[in-house]
Amino acid sequence: MSASAPFSVTVPLKVGLVGTGYAAKLRAETLQSESRTELIAVAGNTPERTESFAQTYQATAVLGWQNLVQRTDLDLVIICTVNSEHGAIAHTALSAGKHVIVEYPLSLNPWQAEELISLAANVNKLLHVEHIELLGGLHQALQKNLAAIGKPFYARYSTINPQKPAPHKWTYHSTQFGFPFVGALSRLHRLIDLFGKVATVSCESRFWPTESEYYTACLCTAKLRFTSGLIAEVTYGKGEVFYQASRPFEVYGENGCLIFNGDEGFLIQGEEKTPIDVGSRRGLFAKDTKMVLDYLTEGTPLYITPEVSLYTLKIADAVRRASETGKIIDIL
């Protein structure tokens, strides 16, 4: 352990993983490649899939996350499962004396998230909320080139994901996924990281329901007015009603604009159109995992705090209320 490390930890750290999906797979691969960690146990939603996943990564399959987080042989719990379960798992894991990594959102309820941050401080354990969008090539390119356009006054960010047919999975379940801008918190967090505090929000939403609790498509458009005066429009849509995928991100400033579409970017100033190199989105879960381990063992600063994630979660919840009431919500 480094003298500057924030916690007293022994390597290899014994890790428990909740989830068997895409993010869990990438976490498990990173844990396997790391000399500082040992993946001990995995808990998933179905016994068959959990057993298969655990065998792949030489871990023990555990029935239910409740049994996993109570294990005395774990130092760290990584939560990569249904959004609606994040808060309860994090609370139980922290209370059991474990460090915690959780994919955003920390909770669907901002008040529970606030309580979890206090709990982590009280038990002296790490609570890290993943926000890999900040580590990706698009965000790094935005940060690097933002000053070139002068004071920004307008931003537009849209992600449209066609799915035909819509998958029968938790990300299309309103209760399990949460309100779209809460469940997909990174859509707002990227803007808040760039432009700071928010003054007001409004939102319009539409869902294409089925006879079950799952929907086949959703479309949400939010407007955020920042305290700087900048206005941002954010659209999130997915499902069967869409026919073309797109993810443009545009920022307009007094001296030019930044235009990104997918992995292509340009700085436009007058007649000049300068290409911007947009780095890869690959390897970000591995990078996040390694940064947490650097923090735990060496004290290297992390790229985000749970308090910053909580602020965005509160804004996202205000967007939800704006959608439900049709009102403009003031952020205090």
From TrEMBL:
Keyword set includes Transferase: yes
GO MF entries: nucleotide binding; transferase activity
TM segment ranges: none
Segments forming domain Gfo/Idh/MocA-like oxidoreductase N-terminal: 13-131
Gfo/Idh/MocA-like oxidoreductase C-terminal domain segment(s): 149-329
UniProt-listed InterPro entries: Gfo/Idh/MocA-like_OxRdtase_C, Gfo/Idh/MocA-like_OxRdtase_N, Gfo/Idh/MocA_Oxidoreductases, NAD(P)-bd_dom_sf
Keywords, comma-separated and alphabetical: Transferase
Domain of life: Bacteria
Pfam families: GFO_IDH_MocA (PF01408), GFO_IDH_MocA_C (PF02894)
Similarity section: Belongs to the Gfo/Idh/MocA family.
PANTHER family given in the database record: BILIVERDIN REDUCTASE (PTHR43377:SF10), BILIVERDIN REDUCTASE A (PTHR43377)
Name used for this protein in its record: Glycosyl transferase family 2
Organism: [Phormidium ambiguum] IAM M-71
